[in-house]
Amino acid sequence: DAGVTQSPTHLIKTRGQQVTLRCSPKSGHDTVSWYQQALGQGPQFIFQYYEEEERQRGNFPDRFSGHQFPNYSSELNVNALLLGDSALYLCASSLRQLEAFFGQGTRLTVV
Amino acid sequence: ELKVEQNPLFLSMQEGKNYTIYCNYSTTSDRLYWYRQDPGKSLESLFVLLSNGAVKQEGRLMASLDTKARLSTLHITAAVHDLSATYFCAVNFGNEKLTFGTGTRLTIIP
Asked: Which residues of A fall within a CB distance of 8 Å from B99?
């Protein structure tokens, strides 16, 4: 079992650009959540997907959007990037509301 | 407001000593998680605590949950250098997401 995998691992973008991050959940998991972790802080919940629908959303602007595919994989899209979007983006998968397992993260740097 | 607070934020301790990290949360929950994070890395699951009075141990780490006091503790016994990391508690308040504490950066000094 490969666990939760995310791609890419590192990314550098320019302000105003758009970015797409990808996540493949752990085998057997049907729920994917995305978190943003700024340097020196705890992860902050962005949103959660289940059955291809956004089920729950945190306090993030509409520039942050996502998608879940029939195979349960997920994408996080961020439009009009700001310097403050620089962070580690973590994907977590779970089977319904049981224990969440985190991927290795994508380090996004906006310059 | 749903809040999770950890203390201390920073902890420097000598090898061989014992210490406790505290995690307080603002409202009822019976699902609490502890994670470890090494610099630049992702979150490694340490413990899942699902009921009042739950106690779990793995090596030199032991976690407990008191849902009435809204308090969880992570106890470190006879610390070794390999335990140096940032430790997070996270609470599921029944709203299908994890709310994380601020983290405790632990440094073990030889």
From this structure: 45
Classify the phi-psi angles of A71: left when phi > 0, otherwise alpha if psi is within -120 to 50, otherwise beta: alpha
- Interface residue ranges in chain B relative to chain A, Cβ cutoff 8 Å: 33, 35, 40-45, 48, 88, 90, 92, 95-103
Among the partner residues B45, B96, B97, nearest to A99 by beta-carbon distance = B45
d(CA B5, CA B103): 8
Spatial distance between the Cα atoms of A5 and B86, rounded to a whole number of angstroms = 22
pLDDT of residue B109: 93
pLDDT, one tens digit per residue, over B9-44 is 999 999 999 999 999 999 888 789 999 999 988 899
Cβ-Cβ contacts under 8 Å, B100 against chain A: 42-44
The residue to which tokens 């709203």 are assigned: B95
Tell me the C-alpha distance between B93 and B4, whole Å.
Answer: 10
